[in-house]
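Posting for a labmate who doesn't have an account.
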Amino acid sequence: MNEIPETEQPETTTQTFGATGLTCGHCANAVIDELSAIDDVTSVGVEVVKGGESIVTVEALRTVTPDEVAEALAEAGDYHLV
């Protein structure tokens, strides 16, 4: 009997970044859109902390660099990596 090989699922990495300047859901959606466009990113979550440091969580098939995140934040609006 032939065995069917298991399909290998690539491992994902989860990284958390701090960001400033986010004040609302619109801000979060803009950041999610920009970060989702980075190659190999599979999921993005944003917890907005108005007037403080918002939490950005990125899941990807590789390590995403802080420079990539900073660039995506700048593209999304006046948001900055902490």
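Reply:
Got it, the structure tokens are right above this. Residues 13-81 form a domain with the Alpha-Beta Plaits fold (CATH 3.30.70.100).
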